[in-house]
Specification:
Blueprint: H1 2-15, H2 19-35, E1 47-50, H3 53-59, E2 89-92, H4 96-112, H5 117-134, H6 137-144, H7 147-153, H8 156-161
Antiparallel strand pairs: 1-2
Helix pairs in contact: 1-2, 1-4, 2-4, 4-5, 4-6, 5-6, 6-7
Length: about 180
Amino acid sequence: MLSWSVIEYRAKYEAAGELSHVKDIIKWGTDYFLKTFNHTMDTINTLLHRKTIYLRIIVGVGDASEGSLSPNDLYCWMRPEDIDYPQAVTECHSCSDLVAEMATAVASASIVFKDNKAYTQKLVHGAKILFIFARGGAWLYYATGNSSYLKFATTTGLAKHAGAFWGGPYYGVLSWDNKLTVA
């Protein structure tokens, strides 16, 4: 989302003198993502991730440790750099929702960093690998111009799976589990 805002409002960030700052923030996140898998390979089948609140609550992975005297992510909401207790890191072999979000973030960040060709190529390659793992086409099409990504992102099957044909009150609403509106 932050990369998207820079893509859309780059001139505003420049006028406010914040473009360099926001790019540093985006780079911090994308560098972290690239460290969670071997981004130099052509395919991956494993991703390392922290068991975060998102995964505990939405996916039901991990232990919230209610009543525990030990700190955990539910009771210690703070900046990651201030956390001084152990954080679980696990391997993920079927976390396509997480990986699709990462592919989107990395591909959109590659557009933000188009003035840094080497970093952009690194991000696009990482996004392609993540796409293969999870499939995340619209932003990869935008980042690369490769129409096969657009074709995948606009297939009837994908729209049907996202609930595009049944309408409903939430169709077209951007949320954690529906990014079709952005595509």
